[in-house]
From TrEMBL:
Residues 25-143 form the VanZ-like domain. Residues 150-183 are annotated as: Disordered. This is VanZ family protein. Keywords: Membrane, Transmembrane, Transmembrane helix. It comes from Streptomyces ferrugineus. The lineage of its organism: Bacteria, Bacillati, Actinomycetota, Actinomycetes, Kitasatosporales.
Length: 183
C-alpha cells in the first residue's frame, strides 16, 4: 500500500527512497571519516565555545581564507538538506515542517560530530561549525527541495491524466461477468 502523498508509483517511490537512503549513508560515512579521523599536529588550539568567534578569526585572516573556511563549513552537511526529505519520500508535506525536520536533523548530526570530536586527537570542537553546518542544511533544503517536489508533483499528475476526456481520472470501472450458480 502506498503512503498518502508519497512519490509517484510504488516501484518509483521505493527506488527514490532507497537511493536517498544509500546516498545518505554514504555521505554520513564520508563526513565521519573526514571529521573523526585523528590528525598529526604539533599543537592543538583550544576549543571554540563562543558563537561567531571562529568566523571573526577567519575574517581576520583575509577575505579569501574566510570565504574558503565558511564555504567548507556550509558545504559539509548541506547534502543532508536534500537527502533527508528524499528518504522520507513525501510530495505533499508542509514546506515549513519539512524544513524544520531537515534542519533539526542536520543540527543534531553536527552536534553529535562535535561531541565525538572531543575524544579524537588533533580535532578541535568549534561551535561555529555547528552553526555553519546547520545553515548549510537549511540553505540546501530551501533552494532545492521545494522545486524538486513541485517538479515531481507535476510529473506525477501528467502520468495520471486520463487518456480521453470521457474517461474519469481514476480509469474505467472494471466489469465482472456474472457466473451462474451450479445446481
Amino acid at each position: 500500500m502506498q503512503r498518502q502523498g508519497s512519490i509517484g508509483g510504488g516501484s518509483a517511490a521505493i527506488r527514490i527512497r532507497a537511493t536517498g537512503g544509500v546516498l545518505l549513508l554514504a555521505h554520513l560515512a564520508f563526513v565521519a571519516w573526514l571529521t573523526l579521523r585523528p590528525l598529526d599536529v604539533p599543537w592543538v588550539t583550544p576549543a571554540n565555545l563562543q558563537p561567531f568567534a571562529g568566523i571573526r578569526a577567519d575574517l581576520a585572516l583575509g577575505w579569501q581564507e574566510a570565504a574558503r573556511r565558511i564555504t567548507e563549513g556550509l558545504a559539509l552537511l548541506a547534502p543532508l538538506g536534500v537527502l533527508i526529505p528524499m528518504t522520507h519520500g513525501r510530495l505533499t508535506v508542509s514546506p515549513l515542517g519539512s524544513l524544520v525536520r531537515a534542519v533539526a536533523a542536520g543540527a543534531l548530526i553536527s552536534l553529535a560530530i562535535e561531541l565525538l570530536q572531543t575524544g579524537v586527537p588533533g580535532q578541535i570542537v568549534d561551535v561555529d561549525s555547528v552553526l555553519l553546518n546547520t545553515l548549510g542544511v537549511a540553505l540546501a533544503h530551501a533552494t532545492i527541495v521545494p522545486a524538486a517536489r513541485r517538479h515531481l508533483r507535476r510529473r506525477s499528475e501528467r502520468t495520471r491524466r486520463p487518456a480521453s476526456p470521457q474517461e474519469p481520472a481514476q480509469g474505467r470501472t472494471p466489469t465482472i461477468p456474472r457466473v451462474g450458480i451450479a445446481p
